[in-house]
Design goal:
This protein has 98 residues and is mainly alpha-helical. It is 51% helix and 11% strand. The chain is built from five helices and three strands; from the N terminus they run βααββααα. It has a three-stranded antiparallel beta sheet. A hairpin with a 2-residue loop joins strand 2 and strand 3.
Amino acid sequence: MPNRVLRLPTVLERTGYSRSRLYARISDGLFPRPILLGPRVAAWPEHEVDAVIAAHIREVTDAELARLVAEIHAQRATFGLSAGTSASATRPEQSAAA
């Protein structure tokens, strides 16, 4: 499965939110925060946006949606790591300093 990221215009199109509504949902914990791709570049992982849209289709409550978003944020810490690999073991600055 490819790991695509979506820029703001695509997220707005997919969700139907206005820019201000999207950022209000993020502030309320009802939509995932964007990831930073650079100093002035942010995007959302496509699978996270799809998960929120699917939750809306299932008509979840705001409390359930907030739990989903919290789970999405927690999963980011280990995204892409294979089993048995810690986050610190994959950071090049730490292995170079050793």
